[in-house]
Fold this sequence. Notes:
Number of strands of chain B: 5
Radius of gyration of chain A: 26 Å
Strand content of chain B: 25-35%
Strand order of the largest sheet of chain B: 2-1-3-4-5
Largest interface: A-B, 65 and 70 residues
Number of helices of chain B: 6
Radius of gyration of chain B: 24 Å
Distance between the termini of chain B: 40 Å
Order of helices and strands of chain B: HHHHEHEHEEE
Structural class of chain A: alpha+beta
Structural class of chain B: alpha/beta
Oligomer: heterodimer
Distance between the termini of chain A: 67 Å
Helix content of chain B: 25-40%
Number of helices of chain A: 13
Number of strands of chain A: 11
Amino acid sequence: MIRTAFLLALGGLALVAxxxxxxxxxxxxxxxxxxxxxxxxxxxxxGERGIPPEDxxxxxxxxxxxxxxSGDEEAALxxxxxxxxxxxxxxxxxxxxxxxxxxxxxTKTYRGDPYERCMNAFYxxxxxxxxxxxxxxxxxxxxxxxxxxxxxxxxHQRDFAALSFMLGWVSHRRGKPEQARYxxxxxxxxxxxxxxxxxxxxxxxxxxxxxxxxVGPVKFRSGPHGSVARFRRRDYPEExxxxxxxxxxxxxxxxxxxxxxxxxxxxxxxLDGIRSGKAVFKTGTYIxxxxxxxxxxxxxxxxxxxxxxxxxxxxxxxxTRAEADVRHWDLLPGExxxxxxSLAPGxxxxxxxxxxxxxxxxxxxxxxxxxxxxxxxxxxxYFRTGxxxxxxxxVDAPRAPEAEDLPKLGFFAPGMSVASPxxx
Amino acid sequence: MHRAxxxxxxxxxxxxxxxxxxxxxxxxxxxxxMGTGLESADVLAISNLADSLLEVDQLTGPHVEGxxxxxxxxxxxxxxxxxxxELLVRSIRQKLVKKASHRVTFVSRDQMDEAxxxxxxxxxxxxxxxxxKQEVRTGADFYLTGTASSITKVGHGxxxxxxxxxxxxxxxxxxxxxxxxxxxxxxxGRAGIVYR
Lengths: 424, 196
């Protein structure tokens, strides 16, 4: 009876520990073939068909990027905010802990590696900035820097220069020059070859160009039983973006952050140790089970009990999942670039060209955007390059409500509440 | 005995299949997803600052002439938490309006309107706006402003966040701070083993 209970329990473990559906993968092919709108529609359709709860944050991150490249900023912000909330939740249930330790790690709620949490915060901050909500943009960039600071080994990370730079930029706009100077200095320390970071002159430059170039790293399994998660850089030819305004070259972007470097420069994770232990256990029980079974079957004595134990060990080995969780945010760029500019207010024609390794623009890789630089304040444009010589852009910002749009306030009797201005 | 043991083992392993049912809880209570950021209980606690505000002599004292007007400005978010500061403004404003009752008038202002509010105040002093004109803006006698700040530390799988939300009531005429109060909380959370 004990043996029966043992075998039933192992069977139950298998059911608890295994995923019922494969991990979510975004339709990256459509996106990287130059059809972000197709990818966007496909990702939305995936959601309508149902996403495993443990993959929701991953799905929403992919949806966010596809929405940005399709020009749907509001949907992107909504999706990324929800994903950020899931990714930022600290606690895991005991069930999740048990599943991760004893079973398939991809059954746990996806919360991303630190570089993915940084990018979620980065995109969220950019979108808030573009809609004029500087407080929440600032909070998002700070959140991203905190995500980058998580280090199981205890050392201080915080080397995501693009986030530091953006925090500096928004701090200047919020009237916090000291924070701005500190953040710019921090950014320049971690990306010393970028000439724009140390002194971007936000008081003079009224246009900030932010660009996502290429394709992000891919995560894969290696090591015994695939227990080790590693990253591989994906190749792309872009070295930056060159910007022409009304036919005249005004500058070229420079790298602030390399996402592959961010992905691989993490301390040793606790789960690496657990997976290593599981890999050893898996191998050990397999060998032990084989030896015992061989002895039980070919020994001159009838050893039914030993055979059952051997089968139990082999089953335990088969059910132990030592594979690393390799879910990752597929639609991320490979690098983040910035370029601050000073442009006269009014309408302009911005042409984006893409230089390659030679330093010269790659033939046939350019796109023109018509923009309207506002008469006061500043504006932020985001561009994304990708395979098939694609360039997507968020240019003219969502309009903030003007004073004349606000409802006229009449005289209100004491005790009456007043409606706030409508949000756009 | 053996059957009971087998059943116990099965129940233990299938515990992971248990689903969480939605249930109604008090906004003042914490829940299983509580983090180190702003929670509903914090928002309710912040709204209680309204009681302290309404005891200000310059607002509700025996020597106050007429019905003073307080312009409520948005709260400035200097934290690393992405939250809707308008929620805090609404929360405290609802309590103020509910309790003020014929004693104080409250109006909302966007941050851009600080200059506008001051211009209205100047116009009111000149006698251009009076309480009897239904169609004109109400000048403010006081501003209610707030700032949210945080101190956050992370390391070794632990996140610690201290949150400070401070409010000030400022005399629009001379810039004097006539009231100041705040809400403080600190939370420490540890990431589950699978997220370390």
